[in-house]
Amino acid sequence: MFPIRDHNPSGSVPVVTYALIAANVVIFLNYWSLFQNDLALNRFFWDWALIPARVTAGDGFGGIVTSMFLHGGVLHLAGNMLFLFIFGDNVEDEMGHVGYLLFYLASGVGAALAQYITAPFSQVPMVGASGAIAGVMGAYLLLFPRARVDILIILIVIFRIVTIPAWILLALWLAMQAFGGIGTPADAGGTAYWAHVGGFVIGVVLTIPLWLRRGGPAFWRRSLGAPRHPAAEYRLTATDVPRAGRRRTRRGPWSR
Length: 256
Fold this sequence. Notes:
This protein is mostly helical and 256 residues long. The chain is built from ten helices and three strands. It has a single domain (9-145, 168-219), classed as Rhomboid-like (Rhomboid-like fold), CATH 1.20.1540.10. Strands 1-2-3 form a three-stranded antiparallel beta sheet. The longest helix has 22 residues, at 74-95. It starts with a strand and ends in a 33-residue tail after the last helix.
């Protein structure tokens, strides 16, 4: 299951969220051709990704920041940008543009350091914006736990859209990351689970002062745990495509 939209558009244009999405897409397109050449791609990631072993050796510190703008493929990029698009606008609306940008970068750096601590001698490059986006999700959980989110559930051939409170989705996501991190060697490559957990926790911690200034639990009571803007209602509409009826025909003994 994965989220496809929330029901609370922001009250202002989320320019930073849009700019971050654009930056990630543009940067990816600029090195996309390297995926046809493993040697060139590995050299590129050696220079710009987070390589824990390099940091331990006293080199490659810039990768702590630059790695959050790199991705390992189209699906990796698309999934991260979808999450940022869904959860980023309301958090930016609450924090303000500059505060949100600083928060995003701080969450990304904290997530990278969390992953580094778990495997400081790993030579596996770490790339992706998911650590920073996990921080945004942590902020969303603290500020808007009861906001409605539509998720797409896929069970083999069954596709269904279900609306649930944000806290259920985000709590399940965090639990999955924690269990994944416990069950996977930190230097094995693949998903950087501890970067996700670290980014999420850092996002919650960094948002606590804002939440307290808004009144803490009183903020939840006033807002009902959702963004202050009117909720959007999504409904499927009928199309102009005519329905084709099934015409019965006689079948022979071997027809199926």
